Known about the structure:
The chain is mainly α. It has a domain of about 55 residues. Helix content is about 40%, strand content about 10%. It contains four helices and six strands; from the N terminus they run E-E-H-E-E-H-E-E-H-H. The strands form three sheets. Strands 1-2 form a two-stranded antiparallel sheet. Strands 3-4 form a two-stranded antiparallel ribbon. Strands 5-6 form a two-stranded antiparallel sheet. The protein starts with 7 loop residues before the first strand and ends in a 16-residue tail after the last helix.
Amino acid sequence: xxxxxxxxxxxxxxxxxxxxxxxxxxxxxxxxxxxxxxxxxxxxxxxxxxxxxxxxxxxxxxxxxxxxxxxxxxxxxxxxxxxxxxxxxxxxxxxxxxxxxxxxxxxxxxxxxxxxxxxxxxxxxxxxxxx
Length: 131
Ligand SMILES: [Zn+2]
Ligand SMILES: [Zn+2]
Ligand SMILES: [Zn+2]
């Protein structure tokens, strides 16, 4: 039996894809390394397709800038989204970090204080606490 699921394959490696255009993109990014943003560090061969990616690389790899910290266990990373991914994986998504999460927490706290100003009643969990 011969499988014809993959119509195109890369002539430089084993990569196969269902369309010629995605193979072309693969060749551009993987083999031709169309990544104009090169790391300025002399002994680093990293290059990125987007300037933002290069900045993240420099900050996390060379500057060792890891100032985003998990509030639960002290795990730290260079990016808010990495820490949030960690929190989702390890802590069920509770206590996400970052500005937006911070604002949401503040707003929630204010709402809770307003709502539960009288006593030891548990705040009724809103359905939107998921995702
Ligand atoms: Zn290839
Ligand atoms: Zn580098
Ligand atoms: Zn953690």
